[in-house]
Every structure is written in C-alpha cells, then in structure tokens.
Specification:
With 377 residues, the protein is α+β, with helices and mostly antiparallel strands. It has one domain: Beta-lactamase (3-Layer(aba) Sandwich). The chain is built from 12 helices and 13 strands. Helix 3 packs parallel to helix 8 and helix 3 packs across helix 11. The longest helix is centred in the first third of the chain and has 18 residues. It is globular, with a radius of gyration of 21 Å.
C-alpha cells in the first residue's frame, strides 16, 4: 500500500492505526477476527476443522465478511508430505474463479473503447487456430463471456486428456495448442442459440486480450485489478512465475489422494490461471460489487445479464440459496477447488479455497457456516 505523509496529529494517528490493521491482515496465520465475538469465532473455526476432516480434504482457507464482522480461518495441511499446516495467507489456485477476473478485464477494455462486446471475435483475432473454429466469424465477445458461443470445450476432448496422461510433466500448454483440440466439423449450437459451459471460450478471450492490449492477459489483469487493489499475493501462473514452490505456488494440490500439483493441464491460461489468497479474492469481490471501483455501472449491468435457464452472466454465476441470491463463481482444477460468493442483499462475502479437488467440501462448509452465522445474527 502507498501512503502520503500527513502532518496533522489526528490524521497521523488514523494512518498509524490503518497501517497496523493492514499489517495484521497481511500476516494472518491461523485465524483472524474483526468485530466478531470470541464464541462465534471459536464455533466458525470448529466448523471449518470438522468440515475439512469429514470431507477428506487436505486443507482449506475460509473468509467471511458481513457489514458487522470479518473472520478468516485455515485448517488442515498445505503440504501433506511436509506436514505443513495451511495458513490463512497461503495462495492457492483459483481454477475457474479466474473467469470472473478475466470478464472484468474484458469489460474494462470495452469501457475504455478498445473493443465492443457484440463485435465478432474474428475482428480482432484472425489466426488459423481461431478461424478454423466452426462459426468463428459469427461468435461475438459477448458469446464467449456468456458461454453462448457453441464452441466445444477442449477439456472434454479424449485426445487432450490422453495427452496429459501420457506427458503429465510436459512444457506448459499454449492457448493455440489447446484450441487445436476443438473438433472442426460441428459446433455444439449456433452462436447465441444455446448455452454450454466451455473453457475454450476463456482461452479465446486470453488471446483476444493479448491482441487488443499488445501485452498479455496477465499484464492486463494486473493493470486493471491486481495493482489498483494492491493484491500482492495474486498472479497468473506460468505467465508470471515467482520463486519458491512450483512457479511460486507453495501449496500442494491433491486429487484422489495423489499430489497433482505439477501435472501440466493447461495451467496459467485464461480459463483458470490465477493464484491468490482468500483475503485478496474477497477484496476483488468487495471492489467489484460494493465499492464498484473496477468497472462502471454500465459494464456491471452487462456482467449481470444472466442466462434465463442457466443463471450465468458474463463470467459470473448467479445462485439462489436458502440464504438469498448470490453472485460469484466456483472453480475446480489441478488439485484445487473453491468458491467465491457475494450476497447483494446482505453485502456479505464468502470465499473458500481448498487444495483438494475431489471432495464435497464447498457444499459442506457453505451450509455449516451460513447456518451458524444466521443463528448468531
């Protein structure tokens, strides 16, 4: 964070308090509470511990915030082999939660007048890999963001999955390489005439942002989101490698009891390449929906134009829960899973990150913690 010198004693005192709180949040280890009674904090930690144990997950970090309190806790292990406990300031793969960050980036480019949402993607991308996709000239940027393009999901390709199984530690995949697994014969449906969740859409958006910006998706996410919010532990895997761990990822990821952290399954691309902490994800949600500081009202409205049957907007899921309507996105990939939710009626944020992919941990923790919070309100 950057601060200017303040000469007034009261202002100086306020600044020092703010600095102290910032340091406290930045150095979280097991659990941190702000304006929440110790009994509730203890119960939240107990529910988190029990949920991690019962689900078979290696570990997890949970962040919850309402207008009246903030709590963050961790449980389990970040590394089973080394027996390193999970910490609240650990950074984990966000998997498909990345899509909301990518959507905000694309919408910001539209706000800046660099693209138009209803332009065909081929207006900006004319590479053979894109032109070969069925109906490519009719697919708009909006179609890609909304999952209404009809483009086949490359992760459903048997050949792609065979390639990962055969060469799990190959060099990182490039966007054009995974797009090559899209069948050229037929689309799933004509653009705008159906809905199907496809990771290929966001790989195409990765290429689009690179072409329009002249830099990279990682650089634009940093310019538009990460740097303005001072998210010091958030970065795009592969595109922005960091020292320590696996390209900067110090938490190990697990699936079916095996460490799958270093399996190269298209890591670092626009469909799921971000690494971040639960606290920094919460700051993204707060900036987007509460502060409304990332994109203007027009683009935020576009983002919330949800498909009537699928409840999916532009890189944003809408969920109706027993606790009210929530906006956000879930993710599961490469040994990690998680969920990020914002409840607009209550100005409530829920973020869960875990380093085990194949568990029902998200559903368990969401139900357990929300029941507890409602009982204490």
């Amino acid at each position: 964070m950057h601060f200017t010198t303040l000469s007034h004693p009261r202002k100086l005192f306020v600044q020092l308090v703010f600095l102290a709180l910032s340091f406290l949040i930045g150095s979280l280890t097991k659990a941190q509470t702000v304006n929440v009674n110790s009994s509730l904090a203890k119960q939240l930690q107990e529910r988190l511990d029990t949920s991690v144990d019962s689900s078979g997950a290696a570990g997890a970090v949970l962040f919850i915030q309402s207008p009246s309190f903030t709590w963050i806790g961790s449980s389990g292990f970040a590394d089973l082999e080394q027996k390193r406990s999970m910490s609240t300031d650990d950074a984990l793969r966000l998997a498909s939660m990345t899509k909301t960050f990518v959507s905000v980036t694309v919408l910001k480019l539209a706000e800046e007048g660099k693209i138009a949402l209803d332009d065909p993607v081929t207006k900006y991308l004319s590479t053979p890999a894109v032109s070969a996709i069925p109906n490519s000239s009719e697919i708009s940027i909006r179609h890609l963001l909304a999952m209404t393009s009809g483009v086949f999901d490359y992760t459903d390709s048997d050949d792609y999955n065979d390639a990962i199984e055969t060469f799990p530690e190959r060099r990182p995949w490039k966007a054009e390489e995974v797009l090559a697994y899209i069948p050229l014969e037929n689309a799933l449906f004509l653009p705008g005439e159906g809905w199907s969740y496809s990771n290929s859409n966001y790989v195409l958006l990765d290429l689009l942002v690179k072409e329009v910006s002249g830099t990279s998706l990682a650089s634009e996410i940093r310019r538009i989101i990460i740097d303005p919010l001072d998210l010091q532990h958030s970065f795009m895997e592969i595109q922005e490698p960091r020292p320590g761990g696996f390209g900067g990822l110090k938490v190990r990821g697990y699936e079916e009891g095996e460490d799958v952290t270093e399996i190269q399954d298209a890591l670092g691309l626009g469909d799921g390449g971000l690494i971040s902490t639960a606290y920094e994800v919460s700051q993204f949600l707060k900036a987007l929906f509460t502060d409304k500081s990332l994109i203007n009202d027009e683009m935020l409205l576009e983002m919330r134009k949800f498909h009537p049957q699928e409840d999916y907007g532009l890189g944003l899921e809408r969920r109706e829960t027993q606790f009210g309507t929530a906006w956000g996105h879930s993710g599961a990939s490469s040994g990690f899973q998680g969920d990020m939710l914002y409840f607009p009626e209550k100005d409530f944020i829920f973020v869960l990150l875990s380093n085990t992919m194949d568990t029902d941990l998200c559903d368990i923790i969401f139900s357990e913690t929300m029941d507890l919070i409602n009982a204490n309100e």
